[in-house]
Amino acid sequence: MRLRNLFLLLIAAMALLRSQAHAATTPTEARALAAARNDHTAYTLPAGELVKAKALTRTRHLVYWADTVWGLVTLWLLLELRIAARMEAWAVRISRRRWVQGPLFVLQFNLWMTLLLLPVAVFAQQTERSFGLSVQAWGSWLGDEGKSFALEVVLGGLGVLVLFWLIRRFPQSWWAWSAGTVMALSVLGVFATPYVIDPLFNRFEPLAKSNPALVAQLERVVAKGNGIQIPPERMFLMRASDKVTTLNAYVTGFGASKRVVVWDTSVAKGTPDEILLIFGHEMGHYVLGHIVRSLLFSFALILAGFWVGFHLFQWLLRRFGARWGVARQEDWGSLVVMILVLSVLGFAVSPIASAYSRSNEHAADVYGQEVVHGIVRDPQATGRAAFAVLGETSLDDPTPAPFYEFWTDSHPPIWLRAAFAARYDPWAEGEAPKYFSKQP
Ligand SMILES: [Zn+2]
Question: What is the pLDDT along the chain (440 residues), one digit of tens a residue?
């Protein structure tokens, strides 16, 4: 693929994204947001809980930085201490066949990374346990880690064979081909995850089985929603209470695998109205096409990232390749250089990805509030209460540091969502709702 074509593709993807961008902020929405920003009273915690929430936030930030920095240092050390070169030499000694060497290299690499980052992972899980957010026993936790490890080795082993085949076949443009491959695989991945990956880690059952009354209510919300259809078979209950005490609901999958999942903890701790509102938010992701849009958005980021990454990667090989014992791009050891480069780039774009996600989440909040209008008695009070319950059960900090919101947070802060929900009511202000302008 020519570079010029690639940039045309990138521009086309961006244009598509723009055309699908959210409808402009409505006056009611803007007013509610402005007022909400000055209101820290919609979500608060009692003094004792507040101390815990602050401590939890501090510890989580520590984990975030330990994971990020130590992750990068580990990759660097694998190169600097020539461990990557030795892993390659060992794989090549075992077999002359490339399709054996690649997965063997991935296996060793994953072992090193998992073992070196295990202390951070254990500390993170210990934190969740000590704050009462996780109730997962260590044996079960280790089992999950083992499954993730096996998945990474199997999928990574296959992926690396495709990648290195592309490198040998297209020495100058493999980055574009592999970006295309990653895109195709992510669509497949999003489609297959609910079938293949999710059931490995959690138990799912039809929501109608245990909560038929709730499903009937949810169907009323669905019937209101812009002609969308979410049949009861697409509504699942996840046994989250096996592992956590926090609440959640989400939309996942693609096409025929698309579904809504409600955690059993949400059903246990939320009122029916609150669940309808949370569901309305999830349905918003569905109706507003957030899964497809997020895929398109990540495609644009991946394409740009792989292009920048390719040049950075080439430069690193020229500059340090001899010292690391990774001289050529088709050496298996260069995989570690690629992952180092992609990790640095991924870190650098996290504010962009977070901001994008937050804008989707806010849109879904608006949608959720509108779709339950006329079904839930008081959507504003219910919205505020729902976010308060979400915040209390997750020990969310009511006054979080703006830096982390900007850098890592995929959702607007809970205090702002609660304060916005408490105010947002286009009907009361005689204005057309944002996403239901055609309905009274
Ligand atoms: Zn959401």
Answer: 455 555 556 656 665 555 445 568 899 999 999 999 999 999 999 999 999 999 999 999 999 999 999 999 999 999 999 999 999 999 999 999 999 999 999 999 999 999 999 999 999 999 999 999 999 999 999 999 999 999 999 999 999 999 999 999 999 999 999 999 999 998 999 899 999 999 999 999 999 999 999 999 999 998 888 767 788 899 999 999 999 999 988 888 888 888 889 999 999 999 999 999 999 999 898 889 898 888 899 999 999 999 999 999 999 999 999 999 999 999 999 999 999 999 999 999 999 999 999 999 999 999 999 999 999 999 999 999 999 999 999 999 999 999 998 999 999 999 999 999 999 999 998 888 999 876 54
Contact (Cβ atoms closer than 8 angstroms) between residue 268 and residue 242: no
* Structural domain spans, the chain: 50-201+302-351
Tokens, residue 353: 């990805």
What are residue 376's DSSP bridge partners? 373
What separation in Å is there between the alpha carbon of 248 and the centre of ligand 1? 9
Integer Cα distance of 291 and 287 in angstroms: 10
Tell me the C-alpha distance between 148 and 316, whole Å. Answer: 30
Put the strands of the sheet holding 204-206 in their side by side order: 204-206, 235-238, 259-263, 249-252
Token output for 212? 């038929």
Could you tell me if 418 and 384 are in contact, meaning their C-beta atoms sit under 8 angstroms apart? yes
Q: How far is the CA of 168 from the centre of ligand 1 (A)?
A: 42
The sign of the torsion formed by the CA atoms of 66, 360, 40, 265 equals: negative
Span from the CA of 175 to the centroid of ligand 1 (angstroms): 32
Yes or no: say if 27 and 431 are a contact pair by the CB < 8 Å rule: yes
Is the CB of residue 262 less than 8 Å from the CB of residue 274? no
Cα 127 from Cα 129, distance rounded (Å): 5
The answer to whether 226 and 287 have CB atoms below 8 angstroms apart is yes
- How are beta strands 235-238 and 259-263 bridged, if at all? parallel
CA of 92 to the centre of ligand 1 (A): 47
Ligand 1 centroid, distance to 292 Cα (angstroms): 14
Question: How far apart are the C-alpha atoms of 60 and 62, rounded to whole Å?
Answer: 5
